[in-house]
Amino acid sequence: SQKQTADNCPGTGRQQPFMVFIDLCLKNRTLDECLTHLLEWGKQRKGLLHVCCKELQVFGMPIHSIIEVLNMVELDCIQEVEVNCKWVLPILTQFTPYLGHMRNLQKLVLSHMDVSRYVSPEQKKEIVTQFTTQFLKLCCLQKLYMNSVSFLEGHLDQLLR
């Protein structure tokens, strides 16, 4: 992106020989050829590559592919996240730890997170606690949009405390 520079990237205080600035929209069942190549190239140069992603959008991508991308991206660079997937709570628990590392996240959009009928009330409580604990680490968050996020019903006080 032409607007992004090394000056406004939070992770640039470290010495990095090569920086990549990219906004990601993960919307297919599989990663596209360019992103797959970037991931492979980054794995070969682990520690020598700084991938700064300001905006991340997720629409219908399998969680293992999302995690593969999140493991390569500098999470503290992410400023905007939109997740519009029909995730059940066990899948959300795989994404939640990454959310807590997005220290500069300013905008979060969550849609279609549903409570599975196979999740016990105890499991739901544990998942809500895990999510809200990570959510409280988002000190820069200014905008929150939630649509069909039923697992938080009755827990907004815990989320926004």
Beta strands, count: 7
Strand order of the largest sheet: 2-4-5-6-7
- Mean pLDDT value: 82
| Percent range for β-strand residues | 15-25%
Gyration radius, in Å: 16 Å
**Low-confidence spans: pLDDT under 50, at least 5 residues?**
none
Query: How large is the count of helical segments?
Result: 5
Please estimate the helix content: 25-40%
Q: Give me the secondary-structure category.
A: alpha/beta
Quaternary status: single chain
Straight-line N-to-C gap = 35 Å
Shape: globular
Note the main sheet. Answer: 5 strands, parallel
Outline:
The chain has helices at 33-44, 63-72, 89-99, 121-135, 156-160; strands at 18-21, 24-26, 49-52, 55-58, 80-88, 107-114, 143-149. It has 161 residues and is of the alpha/beta class.
